[in-house]
Write a structure and sequence with these properties.
Blueprint: H1 2-10, H2 26-47, H3 52-58, H4 61-72, H5 80-97, H6 108-129, H7 135-156, H8 167-202, H9 205-217, H10 224-241
């Protein structure tokens, strides 16, 4: 984000000035930060009893929750094609959520991952409500507040930074720059044009990439249950992401 800030300073005359957050945005900012702290915690606990590949696909449930919340709470329009994609993705998530070793035994860890997806779904919609403001300002708030809260929680539960592992901090910062900072920066820009539900649907490709990497890096052998869910998830994600945007960009987003 510092990199983007410097570019803005150098080319400030050519780059359009962004609107700042206002007092009416504060409730959405607070919810955004809180949910961004809770969701990763739920995800971390869920990962303890679930494979990385399964968790990656289950996280696609974020699309479903984002779309439903956008429809019910924020009155965002959802097309029939997107609904079909949402339903198919939900079926895939249900398949992945049951323990493969026991018939009809729901996995507690899968539930935690789905709850994390619920939090991120609501967080996506809160971010959508303030997406007309400066994306850099939003990302800085998310990063600083959520990161500080997570650091405090880590110290409370006994986590410590060891001097011999100090180098891992710089690796984490580099990963955070790409996977968190730049990712959210572009995500917020996309929400301006196509809304929370549609942006989340396009984002559906992310779990597939993560799933493939987890199979390669951790040498996880995919089960029949996983492969069936993957096939169904691909169909659902295709339907959701190939739908036409229902929200058109207006010249003054604040007046939408």
């Amino acid at each position: 984000m510092v990199f983007i800030f410097l570019i803005r300073k150098i080319f400030k005359k050519k780059i359009k000035k962004e609107e700042r957050l206002t007092k009416k945005d504060i409730p959405y900012v607070i919810m955004m930060v809180l949910l961004d702290v809770i969701a990763p915690i739920l995800m971390m606990f869920g990962l303890k009893g679930s494979s990385a590949a399964n968790a990656s696909l289950l996280n696609n449930f974020e699309i479903v929750m984002t779309s439903l919340i956008a429809l019910v709470i924020f009155k965002e329009k959802i097309s029939l094609r997107l609904w079909c994609g949402i339903i198919i993705i939900t079926i895939s998530c249900v398949i992945l959520s049951f323990d493969k070793n026991e018939s009809l035994s729901f996995s507690y860890y899968s539930l935690l991952i789905l709850l994390a997806a619920l939090c991120w779904g609501l967080e996506n919609n809160c971010t959508r409500k303030i997406s007309s403001s400066d994306p850099l300002e939003i990302v800085l708030i998310k990063g600083l507040c959520s990161g500080t809260c997570s650091l405090i929680i880590g110290f409370i539960i006994g986590e410590r930074i060891l001097l011999e592992n100090i180098w891992t901090i710089f690796i984490a910062l580099l990963i955070g720059l790409i996977a968190y900072g730049l990712s959210i920066f572009f995500y917020i820009y996309a929400q301006r044009f196509i809304g929370a539900a549609k942006t989340s649907a396009y984002y559906a490709i992310n779990p597939f990439i993560a799933s493939i990497f987890s199979l390669i890096l951790f040498l996880e052998i995919p089960t029949i249950q996983y492969l069936i869910a993957l096939f169904i998830m691909i169909i659902g994600a295709f339907l959701a992401s190939s739908d036409k945007p229902l929200i058109k960009r207006k010249s003054n987003h604040k007046n939408e």
